[in-house]
Specification:
This is Membrane protein. The chain is mostly helical. It has 24 helices and no strands. Helix content is about 85%, strand content about 0%.
């Protein structure tokens, strides 16, 4: 792989990571501004938007970049430019149609959510928020094509920088706008959430302006490539687009997996809660499940998946080359890295759920219980993402669509009965069952087509869980010793409690892993390089 491509991939990965990091941690000041109940209203608008935007754009930048890179390698630069020009028109049209659909049917979506007069928000208020966020659909698909165009020219900087600027602009407008509405202009919470969701449009404008700036700056060089065009290939854009759609479908489904599960909750959660006489607290608990707790749970998923995903391209290469031994070794390492990082993070969140929820939001018994129940689902989120990526790598991505739809069907079937039995936690159990079923299907497909079974790493997985049990005992002992000294009602004291317990738990876990050799097996040469650097630093 060329150094230019490695550098470009690193830049794009870094930009994506920074953007996700900002998207995870803005919730702390946002929650402080709007309060607990308003987060449900925010989710009522954002869940359908996420699904619409994923359907309109997921996989498009990658698919477009693939085709532009292909024809650039053949020195048929005009083909890529034609694809880009036509793609801009199509994405502008589909984006505008998606906006019209979401804006027009906002009251219908709102009626699916509001099922009882005792709920905090009305149909009109939910429809207002959905309409506020729908404007972003006009711009984002158009922007995705531009990102794909730059990536096709192995120029990752514009995509990375535009992602970060888009996220910063969105968060600044979201926090600043909601604060001004509530505390300066004396507006309502509904108006503040409307401004917060409209921030998606503002962020998209800034992201698009960044891409325009890059395009203007590099247009001279791009036009010089057209002069070198061979002009020997005649390509049907219709054929390319049909291939792009097929290529993008698995990415679309993986991208909307979590939003689809949240959509099921949107449609069924309030109705189920109302049926057991809990309509008055339904909106608040929905916000905790699908916003507050979910944001915390996603943090270890993002970090662990980022590490594990770096191995997946190697799996693809080895599978194509028919190197079965290499495929098995790389899959072993993928799952070991994923579980080695995710499981202790999940255990930590479960053990320290009360102070963690206090630090992010406020002290809440409901929030603590829901977060503790939700934390293990992080392992399932991570496993689904990685198994879906592996299916893509071995060219069996069609099964990703089947496994996800089967999981969603289970969630839809079980959500109301489980909510009636376990209240808010029932929605989490239904999500866990759905994701678990999808993962089992993915693993069975991987076993069949790649001749791989998790049995080959069962011993190492057992070690990971054993060391987490030992770590849990140590952390729990420390936690209960510190509780008389540090109150979980206080944010600062909760931070101290988390830091002390986390450092102690990490020390025990990594000491056991390094002493037993598990860390060497999981990380291989990466750990050796780290050890050598530490030795040189000491010397």
């Amino acid at each position: 792989m060329s150094s230019k491509l490695i550098r470009g991939t690193f830049i794009l990965t870094l930009g994506t990571f920074i953007s996700k990091f900002l998207g995870l941690f803005y919730v702390i000041p946002f929650y402080a501004i709007v309060g607990e109940e308003a987060t449900s209203l925010y989710q009522y608008g954002y869940v359908p938007y996420t699904i619409f935007i994923s359907l309109a754009t997921a996989g498009i930048p990658l698919a477009v970049s693939k085709f532009i890179a292909k024809y650039n390698a053949l020195e048929e630069y005009e083909v890529g430019r034609r694809l880009f020009r036509s793609g801009l028109v199509i994405m502008l049209l589909t984006g505008f149609l998606a906006f019209l659909a979401m804006y027009t049917f906002a009251p219908v979506f709102a009626q699916m959510v509001i099922s009882d007069d005792e709920q905090i928000y009305t149909v009109a208020e939910v429809a207002y928020v959905i309409r506020a966020v729908s404007f972003a659909l006009i711009i984002v698909p158009f922007m995705s094509i531009m990102r794909g165009f730059f990536q096709g020219h192995q120029s990752m900087g514009p995509s990375a920088v535009s992602q970060v600027i888009e996220q910063i602009a969105r968060i600044v407008f979201l926090l600043g706008g909601s604060f001004l509405v509530l505390y300066v202009w004396g507006g309502t919470v509904v108006e503040a959430i409307g401004v917060a969701t409209f921030a998606a449009f503002v962020g998209a404008v800034f992201g698009l302006l960044t891409l325009f700036w890059y395009f203007k700056k590099r247009k001279k060089h791009l036009d010089e490539l057209l002069v070198q065009d061979k002009g020997q290939v005649q390509v049907s854009l219709g054929g390319i687009y049909s291939e792009i759609v097929v290529y993008a479908i698995p990415f679309i489904f993986v991208g909307i997996a979590i939003p689809l599960y949240q959509l099921v909750d949107m449609i069924t959660f309030n109705r189920a809660m109302a049926s057991i006489g809990l309509a008055g607290i339904s909106d608040t608990l929905f916000g905790i499940v699908n916003f507050s707790a979910q944001k915390i749970v996603i943090i270890p998923v993002s970090l662990a998946t980022a590490f594990a995903m770096t191995i997946v391209p190697l799996v693809t290469s080895s599978f194509v080359s028919r190197e079965e031994g290499a495929v098995k070794r790389q899959l072993n390492q993928t799952f070991q890295v994923l579980l080695f990082l995710t499981v202790p993070a999940v255990v930590g969140i479960m053990l320290l759920a009360e102070p963690i929820y206090t630090v992010f939001y406020e002290h809440s018994i409901d929030g603590t219980e829901i977060l503790r129940a939700y934390a293990p689902v992080a392992i399932l989120f991570a496993l689904f993402s990685v198994t879906a990526a592996i299916l893509q790598g071995i060219n069996e991505q069609r099964f990703t669509v089947f496994s996800l739809l089967f999981g969603i069907l289970l969630k839809l079937s079980l959500n109301i009965p489980l909510i009636k039995l376990f209240q808010a936690e029932g929605a989490i159990y239904a999500t866990a069952i759905g994701y678990g079923a999808s993962i089992i299907i993915n693993l069975l497909v991987i076993r069949h087509y790649a001749q791989y079974s998790l049995r080959s790493v069962a011993g190492k997985i057992g070690q990971i869980f054993l060391y987490n049990i030992i770590m849990s005992i140590v952390v729990l002992a420390a936690y209960f010793m510190l509780l008389p000294l540090l109150s979980t009602d206080s944010k600062m004291q909760s931070v101290a409690l988390i830091v002390i317990c986390a450092i102690l738990g990490a020390a025990v876990y990594f000491a056991l892993s390094i002493r037993s050799g598990l860390a060497d097996i999981v990380f291989g040469s990466r750990l050796d390089r780290l050890k050598n650097k530490l030795k040189r630093a000491k010397g």
